[in-house]
Automatic annotation (TrEMBL):
Organism: Arenibacter arenosicollis
InterPro entries found in the cross-reference section: BphY/WalK/GraS-like, HATPase_C_sf, HATPase_dom, His_kinase_dom, HisK_dim/P_dom, HisK_dim/P_sf, PAS, PAS-like_dom_sf
Protein name as catalogued: histidine kinase
Coiled coil: 6-33, 164-191
Reactions this protein catalyses: ATP + protein L-histidine = ADP + protein N-phospho-L-histidine
Transmembrane segments: none
Every Histidine kinase domain range: 198-425
Enzyme class per UniProt: transferase
Keyword Membrane in record: yes
Length: 428
């Protein structure tokens, strides 16, 4: 009996020595940073929790991680947290460790969090919830993974969504504002259409009557009107004609809209033949030479592009020099380089480059952008007729095709216009 008790006692001593050795090894590991350890008071009794890390570098990574990283028991108590999660909660390490994670979850998210937490025992689960810290809501995205069978805990990664939510609100406000502006734009377009109708009918009708009755007075009452009076009537007719031209050009500008035409693959040569025929009288009157070599086929709105070429060619005829016949040359080629004069742009996208060159009076290069603005004239109306809208229409049509137009010249050196239209309809 005594012998048995002695053996039993020796066995217990061996077990205690083994446990003591294990404890000493654990203490050494904690001191070296190889194991995290902390004490938690439960029911007035202190319990020590340890988290072993076989890879020290990995543990350091988690500590420095830019997301919240915590371990919780299967009852939901936080037994490990990295510094970021404490910062997110604006709390100290002691305030977080040993606390139920549910304490930091907003009441409205309790149900969803419990479901995600329960599902994590069987598979990875993730979703969005709200944390509540001092009555301040923090939207977060959490990813939960059970660490069994290694450790009976759940690993949780928490991502702060506050900035993302703020950006979403900004984007939503922007979209709402854009929708309001689209409604206003639609309203303005309708008003513009109404104006176009009024301009084309109501405004032109009084002008026609002014011109008609002025002509009748001159024809039938010429003998009763002084030379000064006749001069006044001639001025009235001239002003009425200019007003009519202005209204018609404004209408043409307002109608230059991509919604009123379909894109088609068109041979530019065919369009130029039509324009040449339309301007044949002016070309013959000025003995103009008009040449073109345009092998490009490009996807365009035909009637708009016909208007574009008509405006450019008639512009070259109008601003020709008095001492020589107008000479207009139009060429085209495919290119990947856009020349804006002072800068060049190149890429994979192909453009049809259409070049219009004339030998007219030209313009000072400093005005190369101004000439495309509405109502801009570089010469007096007594020298050259027009409303200053023709080139503005040209630019608007080019922009409708997602293209570019440049102009270069010098005084009495002619003008060169380069138009770049994307070859592929999908680039428009």
């Amino acid at each position: 009996m005594t012998q048995v008790s002695k053996e039993s006692l020796l066995k217990k001593i061996e077990e205690l020595e083994s446990r003591l050795e294990d404890s000493e090894q654990l203490v050494n590991a904690i001191q070296k940073g190889e194991v995290d350890a902390f004490a938690v008071n439960i029911d007035n009794r202190s319990e020590v929790y340890t988290l072993q890390s076989g890879d020290y570098a990995y543990r350091v990574l988690i500590e420095e991680f830019g997301e919240g990283a915590i371990n919780v028991t299967e009852e939901g108590m936080i037994v490990y947290t990295n510094p970021y999660f404490c910062e997110l909660l604006n709390s100290t390490y002691d305030q977080v460790i040993g606390t139920s994670l549910l304490n930091f979850v907003d009441a409205d998210s309790h149900g969803k969090f419990k479901e995600l937490f329960k599902n994590s025992f069987y598979k990875k689960s993730k979703g969005e919830i709200n944390l509540n810290v001092n009555n301040s809501i923090i939207p977060v995205y959490i990813s939960l993974t059970s660490l069994r069978p290694n450790i009976a805990t759940v690993g949780v990664i928490i991502s702060d969504l506050s900035e993302k939510k703020r950006n979403e609100e900004v984007i939503q406000d922007y979209q709402d504002d854009l929708e309001r502006k689209n409604v206003e734009l639609s309203k303005n377009n309708k008003e513009l259409a109404s104006f176009a109708y009024v301009a084309s009918h109501d405004l032109q009708e009084p002008l026609r009557k002014i011109q008609t009755f002025a002509s009748r007075l001159i024809d039938k009452e010429q003998g009763n009107i002084s030379e000064t009076g006749i001069d006044y009537f001639a001025r009235i007719q001239s002003a009425a004609r200019r007003m009519q031209d202005l209204i018609q050009d404004l209408l043409a500008y307002s109608r230059t809209d991509t919604q009123k035409g379909n894109f088609e693959l068109v041979d530019l040569t065919a369009i130029l033949e039509d324009v040449k025929l339309e301007l044949l009288e002016e070309l013959e009157q000025r003995q103009a030479i008009f040449e073109f070599n345009t092998p490009c086929k490009v996807q365009i709105i035909p009637f708009q592009f016909r208007q574009l070429m008509y405006n450019l060619i008639s512009n070259s005829i109008k601003f020709s020099r008095s001492d020589r016949a107008p000479h207009i040359v139009i060429t085209s080629k495919l290119t990947t380089e856009l020349d804006f004069g002072t800068t060049k742009k190149s890429g994979a996208k192909k453009y049809c480059q259409i070049t219009v060159v004339d030998n007219g009076i030209g313009f000072e290069q400093q005005y190369h952008e101004r000439i495309f603005e509405l109502f801009q004239r570089l010469h007096g109306k007594s020298e050259y007729t027009g409303t200053g809208i023709g080139l503005a229409i040209v630019k608007k049509i080019v922009e409708n095709h997602n293209g570019y137009i440049t102009a270069s010249s010098g005084q009495n050196k002619g003008a060169t216009f380069n138009i770049y239209i994307p070859e592929n309809r999908h680039d428009i």
